[in-house]
Description:
- With 439 residues, the chain is α/β, with parallel strands linked by helices.
- It has 2 domains: 3-52 and 366-423, Urease, subunit C, domain 1; 55-357, Alpha-Beta Barrel (TIM Barrel), CATH 3.20.20.
- Helices cover 30% and strands 21% of the residues.
- It has helices at residues 74-83, 102-115, 131-136, 159-167, 180-189, 198-202, 205-222, 234-242, 254-258, 264-267, 280-292, 307-310, 327-336, 342-357, and strands at residues 3-12, 18-26, 29-34, 43-46, 51-54, 56-61, 86-91, 119-122, 124-125, 143-146, 173-176, 226-228, 248-252, 297-298, 373-377, 382-383, 402-403, 406-412, 415-419, 422-423.
- Strands 1, 2, 3, 4, 5, 15, 18, 19 and 20 form a 9-stranded mixed beta sheet that branches. Strands 9-10-11-12-13-14 form a 6-stranded parallel beta sheet.
- Strand 6 (56-61), helix 1 and strand 7 form a beta-alpha-beta unit.
- The chain is globular and about 70 Å long.
- Residues 52-416 form the Amidohydrolase-related domain.
- Belongs to the metallo-dependent hydrolases superfamily. DHOase family. Class I DHOase subfamily.
- Keywords: Hydrolase, Metal-binding.
- Its cofactor is Zn(2+).
Amino acid sequence: MTVLLIRNARIARPDGSNFDGDLLARDGRIERIGAGIDAHADETIDARGQLLLPGVIDPQVHFREPGKEYKEDLGTGSRAAVKGGVTSFLEMPNTDPPTVSQAALDDKLVRAAGKCVANYGFFIGATTDNLEELNRAQPVCGIKIFMGASTGSLLVDRPEDLERIFADGTRLIAVHAEDEARIRERRARFQDRTDPAAHSEIRDNLCALKATELALRLSKKYHRRLHILHLSTKEEVELLRRDKPAWVTAEAIPNHLFLNVDDYAGQGTLVQMNPPIRTKEDNAALWAGLRDGTIDFIATDHAPHTLEEKRRPYPQSPAGMPGVETSLPLMLTAMAEGRCTLEEIQKWMCWGPAAAYGIPNKGKILEGWDADLTLVDMQTRRAVRNEELFTKVKWSPFAGRELTGWPIYTIVGGRVAYDRGRIREDVRGKALRFVIGDR
C-alpha cells in the first residue's frame, strides 16, 4: 500500500472552480480531499499553491513500437507523456507489424507492462479481411480505420469494405478521415511541386470533408459509435454542427489549433502532417467548435520522426510531429491568455476522453477516483527547448515558444512518476479498462 499526501495545492474542481486544500491518495485512489489533512504518508508533496489537475488522457499517440523504435518506443513515449502531465494514453495500430490481431495486441500489452510509466490502452487496426479480430480482440479502446493516408493492409478506402465493418459489431470506430481517391488524384496533379506547402493543397479541405461525410453516413445508417480523429477543417466543423448524432464524437489536436499554412515558411517539412495544417480561418473554426461542443476533446496525434527524416526534401519527407509533452502547456497558456477556461481544459483533456472511451474513474479529482494527477506551475513562463524534451526524436514544432503550465509533478496510480525534471523509474502504469455502453 502506498500513501501520498499533497498539501497546499490549488485543487481544480470539474466545474472549473478551484480551492486551496490537501489531497490524500491511498493505494492508487483518492481517499480524501479537504483542508488540513493530517495523515501518515509514504511521501508528502508541498504544492506551494500550484494548480493540481487531473492527469491528462491523450487518446491518440503513435509510439512506434514494435518496428520503429529508433524514433520512439513505449518507454520513451510514456516518459514524454508524464513529463507533459499525461497519465494515460491510447496508442495507434500502425506499427510494424501492425496491431491487427489478438497476438499483436498481446505483444504490445506485454511490452507496455514492462516499460510504461503511464497507463496505456491500444486500438486494433482495421484491414479489409480482419473483421472477426476487430470484434473479438480484448482489451481495445476501439477500431482504427485509415480511410486514407496509410499504406499496406491498414488502408481501408473502398466503400464496400467500410460498409462491412460499420455494419458488423458495436465497438467504437475511430477514423482517419481523408479521401484516398482524391489524395491520389491531387498528388498526380501537383506532382511537380516540391515545396512543403503543396502538402496542404494536395490534401485539401474537401479531401477531409468527403471522408468525414462518408463515415458519418455509415455511422447513421448502422447507428454505429463513431469518433472522428484530428478534425482539421472549418467545413467538417460546420457539417457536424448541423448533423452530429449523440453517438458521434470528434477531436482536435494542438497542431491544428496553433499552427497553420503560414508556418511552412519558417519550418518547412517539420510541420508536414496528415491531415495537414490548414489556414487561420480553419484554426478559428476549430476553436469555435471546441467551445460550442461540436468538437468534444483534444488529442495530440504524437507522431515522431527523426530530424534527419523530416529534413528530406518534400515529398520524400514523412508526415507527423511529436506533441505529447507540450499539449497541456499549450492549452494552459491559451487559458492564461483568456482563450479557454479551466473547466474546458478538464473537459477537453481529462474527463472528456475518459467518457468517450469508457475509461472508468479517471479524469476528475474526486474522492474514490483514481489518483492520476499533475501539479503544474502557472506562474513561470519558459520556452520549449528541444534539448529538454523526453521524446526520443528531441524536437518540437513549438520550439522557442514561451509557455506556462509546465508540470512539476505527475502522479500515476498514486505514485510520483515525474518529479521536477526526472522520471522515477520504479513506477509503472497499468492497462486501461474500457467499459463502453450505448451513448
